[in-house]
Amino acid sequence: MKALQTMIFATAVTTATFASPFASAHASLKSSNPVAGTTLPVAPKEIALTFNEKVEVAFSTITLADGQGNVVTAEKAKVDAANPAILRMDVPALSAGSYTVTWAVAGHDGHRRKGDFKFTVK
């Protein structure tokens, strides 16, 4: 009986050890252009978000809003053809002010992650 309990325990520990990398394998933002919190002398032409894994375009969005919360573009985000871990969106001409980028993506595991950051145009 003790051998059976030991084998069950060892199997559970092994399963948990191998499953743990997959449990935390959600898409996470690695970098952004423009950089979060930055003040730019000139408005960006696009927003590019780089994640730690490929993102699914059908479940991934970027929204750009001005300082009053008004959405400033109707463009849809696109996954970069050369690197599917990058999500891009063209940006219209922006005036001086504060802007908020809000993003939501789904990685290969199907879990959605969300986030936002601000940048300022002089």
Automatic annotation (TrEMBL):
<dbReference type="InterPro" id="IPR014755">
    <property type="entry name" value="Cu-Rt/internalin_Ig-like"/>
</dbReference>
<dbReference type="GO" id="GO:0005886">
    <property type="term" value="C:plasma membrane"/>
</dbReference>
<dbReference type="InterPro" id="IPR007348">
    <property type="entry name" value="CopC_dom"/>
</dbReference>
<dbReference type="InterPro" id="IPR014756">
    <property type="entry name" value="Ig_E-set"/>
</dbReference>
<dbReference type="InterPro" id="IPR032694">
    <property type="entry name" value="CopC/D"/>
</dbReference>
<dbReference type="GO" id="GO:0005507">
    <property type="term" value="F:copper ion binding"/>
</dbReference>
<dbReference type="Pfam" id="PF04234">
    <property type="entry name" value="CopC"/>
</dbReference>
<dbReference type="GO" id="GO:0046688">
    <property type="term" value="P:response to copper ion"/>
</dbReference>
<keyword id="KW-0186">Copper</keyword>
<dbReference type="GO" id="GO:0042597">
    <property type="term" value="C:periplasmic space"/>
</dbReference>
<protein>
    <submittedName>
        <fullName>Copper resistance protein CopC</fullName>
    </submittedName>
</protein>
<keyword id="KW-0479">Metal-binding</keyword>
<feature type="domain" description="CopC">
    <location>
        <begin position="26"/>
        <end position="121"/>
    </location>
</feature>
<keyword id="KW-0732">Signal</keyword>
<dbReference type="GO" id="GO:0006825">
    <property type="term" value="P:copper ion transport"/>
</dbReference>
<feature type="signal peptide">
    <location>
        <begin position="1"/>
        <end position="25"/>
    </location>
</feature>
<dbReference type="GO" id="GO:0030313">
    <property type="term" value="C:cell envelope"/>
</dbReference>
